[in-house]
Specification:
The protein has two helices and four strands. The chain has 94 residues and is an alpha+beta fold. A hairpin with a 2-residue loop joins strand 3 and strand 4.
Length: 94
């Protein structure tokens, strides 16, 4: 009798560089939770959010990715509320 091919693939050969179904990140601005950002395609990255904020005219912030937490620290307290508003709007559209 011919050898049967297993139904399930070899999960030991999983490539950690491949994107999972939907990568999800928790977004924080000044340590306040703003929402979740899901990456749907291979070419999407969390840098897209930073690029959007800079394109919207915000430059006084620093962004970093730690595991599944994307943290944005504003350097200008006056812009903090405006950046939060724009980030929430961005997350609601994506």
């Amino acid at each position: 009798m011919p050898e049967q091919t297993p139904f399930f693939p070899n999960y030991g050969a999983f490539d950690s560089h491949l994107k999972l179904n939907h990568d999800t990140y928790n977004v924080y601005i000044n340590d306040e939770y703003i929402g979740n950002k899901m990456l749907f395609s291979q070419n999407e990255t969390m840098d897209d959010m930073e690029d959007h904020l800079r394109t919207s005219g915000f430059y006084n912030f620093q962004a970093e990715l730690e595991g599944d937490h994307y943290r944005i620290q504003t350097l200008d307290e006056d812009e903090s509320d405006e950046i939060k508003f724009e980030a929430k709007h961005y997350l609601s559209l994506r």
